[in-house]
Request: fold
Amino acid sequence: MNGGIWTMCVTLEEEEVNMLARVGFPKEPLCTNYLANNNNEEEPRADWQHRMQNLSISCALVCLIVLGSAALVGAFGICKHQISAVLVTGVMYLLAGLFAMFTLMIIHCKRIQRVSTRGSPHVDDTGDGVVGPEDRALALLSAREFSTAWSLELGWGGVALATTTSLLWILLSKIMRYNPISTMLL
Reply:
């Protein structure tokens, strides 16, 4: 299976899908949308997942807005030799890294919650793309493993890059303020 923020899809060959259909599992759907209504009013995770997904999306958008603003303020600070604008740029990069970290932690907590509840007898986890008789579904669910891919590593790399960039911008503001060569040039 593979998935993103909103969907979980079964990645099986056509032959494997046909084999599962012969033993009682339906062929469709191969993808499950987390945001779709499952017509199951007793689903305790649905509300929590919707809120966490919205919060994750909001954090990601704030991160992008702050990064764009930081680029503009930083360019102005360098071109006009404005020390305060350079310092503000460093703080903005730090905020972007913080919001990116929030986004990644929300996704991580969502995955941990899904993994920790999948074996619970009180939670019907068949809404994750496995539909069939309960004993077969539980056997498949207990065999599932969640692993991360390149995009999560890229996200954490972005957090580290934003934090490092923030420190460099703050260091640049200190150099601009206390450098005797720059005061002689002005």
The beta strands are 2-3, 7-9, 31-33. The first helix runs from residue 14 to 22.
